Amino acid sequence: MRALARFDSRLGAGLDLRSPWPWLTLAALAVVVVFLLMPLANVLVGSFGGRGGQSGWAMVAADPKYLQAVLNTVTLGAAVTLFTLIIGVPLAWFTARFDFPGKGIVAVLPLVTLVVPEVIAAQTWLMMVGNNGLVTRALAERGITLPSFYGWTGLVTVMTFTYYTYIYIGTLAAIRGFDVQLEEAAQSLGTSPAVSRWKVMLPVVLPAVLASALLVFTLVVGNFAVAMVLSNKVALLSVLTYQATVSEVGSDPTLQSTLATISVGIVMLALFAQRRVVARGRREVTQGRGAAARPLAGWRGALIGTGAAGVVAVSLLPVASIVAGAFTQARGPVMRWGQWTTAHLERVFTRAIDPLLNTLTYAAIATAVGITLAVLISYLVVKKRNALTPALDYLTALPLALSGTVIGIGLLMSFNTGWLPLTGTGAIIVLAYVVRRLPFGTRNASSTLYNIPDSIEEASISLGVPPVRTFLRVVLPMMAPAIAAAAVLTWTTTVAELSASIIVYSGGRETMPIQIFRLIDSGLMAQASAYGLLLIAVIVLPIVVATKLFRIDLFASRA
User: Fold this and answer.
1) Coil, strand, or helix at residue 421?
2) What is the reported pTM?
3) Rounded CA gap, 181 and 252, in Å?
4) Predicted confidence band at 365 (pLDDT cuts at 50, 70, 90)?
């Protein structure tokens, strides 16, 4: 009893151990510490070990290849972020402020790129403009030789058209939420429209743009699929980290830990810089009347509409290419364009169905476990705040700053042996999915809980219903739409996950993204397209059912 009293006093007066919620908070915190914080700590600590007493940092500093990889990774992240801003910000501006021919399609279609897995994007661009691509061969017959798509050209191109949608969505929401009356007031004082937008609107919209830019930079630094397929001789951290993990001559835990730690450090520095910039020019503006879209007709409307449609069409190239490739005859790596067959899909369902079944099984279990944990954590953080919930809130958001490769390495180092050996089982793949996508569920559930009045729950408890039963019978049903949306979004991102699962999987437990990656590595683009088409179907079908059949707004509950 004395120990319990001391424990209670340390945690603070706000922690009532007679209630079930502090104990559930402790249990949730223990789960997060064991399966997220401990693997990350093992990665960080592992970088200081080494063979012969040499730390991983000394190994990296002694080899110019690794220093060049750091520089290349930062350069690639900066370049892709810049190009996504160049594309995404103007597209969002014209979509928010003007009406032009084809605007309805242009405004919606960029969202389709979010459901195309990165490994498929890399594959389909190679099918079009690779060394044996459709466009490459067509131009070669006319005497036009395209430069190699491997290296910097392919990396920047594919990642730009893969990630610009994040800039577009964040900027579009910020511009539409900006109170146009502030802009009108500035112009009424004699300020020109351009200057009023620069001095009034830009400081308000800038935090959203920078947050989206940081997200893009983070995704590029941690990108594995596109980097592995297209990097060629360009040394990148994600590629070298993977190679250090699965080296045929034996993995080097110290080196992989050091490289993974460096990638985390790059993201943290970018996050610090972004917060410094935003803090200096922070503005608080009450949301008011948005600007009405002005019609653009004639040559200006046609020019803007054509340019916007061109950007969207290029970004949707992977979807069209994957459909064509799945039904194109092939002999080994040679695609016979114009000759059609269903043999590739038949092979998947008759002789190579395990990756499909593994994907469905692991993703379903991970979605169920992840959403259950996310709902509980969100409820504790939002409705049952105590001395422990701030730490729980912070830790559950941590995977947003970690690449899948880092998470996979951490899990492999932590659960390879010892009290919970998971290596070689499907459980470690499920665990990687849950940890990687936990923030998706917690953000959706939390945003809905903020809108549920505490008085409803208090009324139920005052009528004699125990707290846990009140949560299950009163609060949980009110969260149902948000839970369903979070489950669909978690599912769609989980089935496409590659960077963490390819680190932890074992033979016979390949998922579709892993199988696609292996087929691309072998040059078998047609077979990879068949799996890619099925993967897109597995992603899109739940979205269609949720939005059309059950009328669930998948983005309404997002924070």
Assistant:
1) coil
2) 0.83
3) 60
4) very high
